[in-house]
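Format notes (please read before filing issues)

Several people have asked whether sequences and structure tokens are stored in separate files. They are not. Every record keeps both together, in the order shown below: the sequence lines, then the token lines. Line labels are part of the format and must not be stripped during preprocessing.
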Amino acid sequence: MVKLVIVALLALTPQAPAAQPAEEPYKKIDISEPDVRAAAKVALAKSKGTLVWAERQSISSNNIRLCINMNRSGDRSTSSEFARVVLSRDNKRKKWTVDTWSWGSCGR
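Then the structure lines:
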């Protein structure tokens, strides 16, 4: 009898609402934007590469993620690789700095 009462009470207890789908943390932006060009200049300061795409973080316009195609070793005989680079901008100094650099797929 006690089990039946507990089950009945649980059935009447309000359920939590369904979780909303998570918002994508980055949104694609045009690679010709001035912020993207400035961030890419910092990312490619010591090497050559091609900017493939760029994204801006949804919650902070001071974070940009780039996909760069470049020759990792600098040797022309080796093939190029993708690098995903996350940069952040210091609001006071208006300078971009590299936060994360990872080799491999850019996730696209």
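For reference, the curators noted about this record: The chain has two helices and five strands. The chain has a mean pLDDT of 82.
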